[in-house]
Amino acid sequence: MGMRRKKRRSVRGESFVELLIAVLIVAFGCAIIATMFAVSLGLNKGAREKDDEYYRTLTEMEQGLPTGEKAPVEIDDGSGSENGKITVETELYGEGGLFSYRKEGE
Predict the structure, then answer these.
(1) Whole-prediction pTM value?
(2) Is 94 a residue whose pLDDT tops 80?
(3) What is the helix (H) or strand (E) element at residue 92, kind and residue range?
(4) How many structural domains is the chain composed of?
(5) How far apart are CA 58 and CA 47, in angstroms?
(6) How far is CA 89 from each of CA 5, 20, 63, 74, rounded to the nearest angstrom?
(7) Is 6 part of a structural domain of the chain?
């Protein structure tokens, strides 16, 4: 019992093992922060590329530079019948899964 009291009242400071554990915790924390930073940079790069592609496609559409593809669009006239659909011929713009379209001749 006397040994436990002596150990609890020790004022010598931290042991070597406690110091190593503290350094290990700090190292893990830094590794997690560095990983989060790297993932964030990758996500930002991907978002920037998608934005650039979107604005390039939008500019092509506004300037009237079609892809050469025709894309008929069916519009429901609101009557609820199967014959209540109007087909509008459109031109398709864009690439890579990002497309815009507008009515032919406009």
Answers:
(1) 0.44
(2) no
(3) strand 90-95
(4) 1
(5) 16
(6) 90, 72, 19, 9
(7) no
Q: Is 56 inside any structural domain? A: yes
**What pLDDT, in 10s, does the model give residues 30-73?**
999 999 999 999 999 999 998 888 888 777 666 666 566 777 87
Yes or no: say if 66 and 93 are a contact pair by the CB < 8 Å rule.
yes
pLDDT category at 7 given cuts 50, 70, 90 is low
Q: Tell whether 19 is covered by a domain.
A: yes
List b or e across 2-14, with b for residues whose CB sees 16 or more CB atoms inside 10 angstroms: eeeeeeeeeeeee
Cβ neighbours of 45 (radius 10 Å): 10
The boundaries of the domain holding residue 99 are 14-103
> Has residue 7 been placed in a domain?
no
Q: How far apart are CA 74 and CA 60, in angstroms?
A: 23
